[in-house]
Amino acid sequence: MALLEAAGLGKRYGTKRVLWDVDLAFEAGEIAGVLGVNGAGKTTLLGCLAGMIGWDRGEVRLGGERLDRGRLDQRQRMMFLPGEGFHFGGADTIRNAAIFSELWRGIEAQPPIDLEEWLERLGLLEIAFESVETLSRGERYKAVLLALHCADPEIWLIDEPFAAGMDARGMEAFRQLVLAAATRGRCIVYTTQFPELAARFADRVVVVGSGGVLLNESTKDRDPEELIRQLGQELGIHGAHS
Ligand SMILES: Nc1ncnc2c1ncn2[C@@H]1O[C@H](COP(=O)(O)OP(=O)(O)OP(=O)(O)O)[C@@H](O)[C@H]1O
């Protein structure tokens, strides 16, 4: 059974219909990349899947059970990370990660990762005790990512991680952290504008557009170059012909 599903999901903002009849299913241990042109509804979709944005038709299912936005026990099984991240005011990177860990997994929980090692790998060790809000955009995003990993929910919904200002070292560390999380059975769904990236760093690629799902493919056994061309075509990239 899929861990997270959208079934006939639809969302309007006023009279503007953004999503209409979206059917998707994501498994535990799966990494999925969601693409779509600007305004296609990627952020809206992730927000709905996380229960943060209400929908008008269809439903979201969590482990086969209908997601009720009022149920904290369901909401706690996932986390939505917006492109600008979020953090607790005044907290430094370590305190911020500890707060997320306590809120999501309880006060006794040990981090699922070696915090010091990952502070080092993300380039945050020297600034680990500085307030997150005084960090640079990329540093701040890395700090929030670390907090997400310490919270370690079953489902990670991450909006545009590869456009959040992280340097190359940060993006590589992000990839490694996500792969480790998927190995622990976490389901990771992220949005991106980069077909090359999604084709090479996802088990499944999804393209949303015109209110629905234009493409939903496993990357397994696919030639990445051919998949990139197919994604490019769906995204209307001029010259992306197979
Ligand atoms: N709170 C809102 N009120 C009204 N319209 C909204 C709201 N949020 C999003 N929209 C509209 O819904 C559409 C989809 O927005 P969304 O942010 O989900 O797209 P996106 O695919 O994530 O876009 P981008 O690639 O530019 O980040 C857009 O046309 C946007 O104007």
TrEMBL record:
<feature type="domain" description="ABC transporter">
    <location>
        <begin position="4"/>
        <end position="235"/>
    </location>
</feature>
<comment type="similarity">
    <text>Belongs to the ABC transporter superfamily.</text>
</comment>
<keyword id="KW-0067">ATP-binding</keyword>
<dbReference type="InterPro" id="IPR050763">
    <property type="entry name" value="ABC_transporter_ATP-binding"/>
</dbReference>
<dbReference type="Pfam" id="PF00005">
    <property type="entry name" value="ABC_tran"/>
</dbReference>
<dbReference type="InterPro" id="IPR027417">
    <property type="entry name" value="P-loop_NTPase"/>
</dbReference>
<keyword id="KW-0536">Nodulation</keyword>
<dbReference type="InterPro" id="IPR003439">
    <property type="entry name" value="ABC_transporter-like_ATP-bd"/>
</dbReference>
<protein>
    <submittedName>
        <fullName>ABC transporter ATP-binding protein</fullName>
    </submittedName>
</protein>
<dbReference type="InterPro" id="IPR003593">
    <property type="entry name" value="AAA+_ATPase"/>
</dbReference>
<keyword id="KW-0547">Nucleotide-binding</keyword>
<keyword id="KW-0813">Transport</keyword>
<dbReference type="GO" id="GO:0005524">
    <property type="term" value="F:ATP binding"/>
</dbReference>
